Amino acid sequence: MILALMQTPVPRDIDLPLPVGDFELKLLLVVLFLVHIFFVNLMVGGSLLSVFFEILGLSAGRYDKLAKKITETITVNKSLAVVLGVGPLLCINLVYTLHFYSANSLTGYAWISIVPLVALAFLLAYIHKYTWEIWTGTKKQLHVLVGVFSGLLFLFVPFIFLSNANLMLFPGEWHKVTGFFSSLRVGNVFPRYFHFLSASLALTGLFLAGWFGRKRYPVEKYLPGFPRAELRRLFYRIAFYLTLAQLAFGPLLLFTLPFEGLSRELFLLILLGILIAVAVLLALRWEIRSPDEKIGRLYIGICFLFSLIVLAMGTGRHVYREVSLAEHKKLVEEASIDFRALETATRLSIEAGYGAGEAVTVELTGERVFLNCAACHAVDRVLAGPSLEEIYFLYDGDPKGIADWARAPGRKRTEFAPMPAFAHLGDEKLRLVADYILEKGGEAALNQ
User: Fold this and answer.
1) Whole-angstrom Cα distance, residue 292 to residue 233?
2) Which domain, by its residues, includes 397?
3) pTM of structure
4) Which residue of 267, 296, 351, 376 is 20 to 30 Å from 87, comparing CA positions?
5) Do residues 209 and 327 share a domain?
6) What average pLDDT does range 23-37 have in this prediction?
7) Quick one: 302 and 392 in the same domain?
8) What is the pLDDT of residues 418-441, one digit of tens each?
9) Are residues 367 and 323 both part of a single domain?
10) Rounded to whole angstroms, how far apart are CA atoms 382 and 348?
11) Which among 393, 391, 440 is positioned nearest to 419, based on CA atoms?
């Protein structure tokens, strides 16, 4: 554990104000991400089901027509997925700047390749969609191949995103990463991805059950050979079995989660999601067994329950992220305070006439050592920490107490940010600065 902490990179934060509050940004991140991932799920699930039914259509023509109609939804959903992905991407850049960009830089070429891969996937998706009636006969196999490659790209791009989102949660493992493939050993990338795939297919099945099963959809015109009730039942079954698969991948995902981010709130959200998933399965089972004239009556209720599952899982994802990064964010905050103190001390030193070369040759005094503390402590007023006058009243006659505190500070008052440790100054400098603080603080107290 100690070795891992020593190897954990702790960068300083970027000292810029956020456009809105931290809470608002995190709320936006969760909501916008859920909207974005909805269309990503439909894009990925639609691509897989389209290829699957087109292959079935090689021997049964009606499935080829069904695959074609599914393909028509993919290009719309992928456009919405891209547009709606801007919001959560901006939010995560603002809230988790250091962690997100660090993960991106560690995966390097894979992250940069997202743009050309997405462009190629879209191009193949459009080719697959608009050559359906042209590439027939001997070209049909080529058409299927284009759909397969498009689907594989749509599978791989979310995998890169997911891998990076996973990597950013574990700064203690960053020193082990030498590229994208090595990053896959961090956390539990593959269980998360399998859960994502099953969710994509389950959600797409539920969506298509409503899309093709709605009363206004001209089934007889576009999908001859498919009664409306049969279409509903077909996609209900897909939603049922893939939701069932999620109940298998869910425990695998949970039991492989690194312990850093586990919390009681996370377990409660997962339990809630499981209970709602069981209710969804029962409702889907009821629908599948319903007679043709009654099938579809529970559709809105099933969609509502499915939305609650997505909300619980999305919130759980955020809870895990917050808990996992809490300790590292504290270290970053302390490093940032330390850096700003050093920056201010250097500026004050230069203003006082001590050049960089002189600083190592001039006489060592408590006043000069105090330059390390001047960013947060003033003689008679509160800055980022208490004044020297207040410290004098707390430690009068006890310079060792000040030195011990500076060497390994705790946190007594919540109105002040945590003080960084100054053990690196050494015992001699800490004692000098303690004497100086008591001297100046005592003078200020006498002048009151």
Assistant:
1) 9
2) 363-446
3) 0.78
4) 267
5) yes
6) 95
7) no
8) 788 888 888 888 999 999 999 999
9) no
10) 18
11) 391
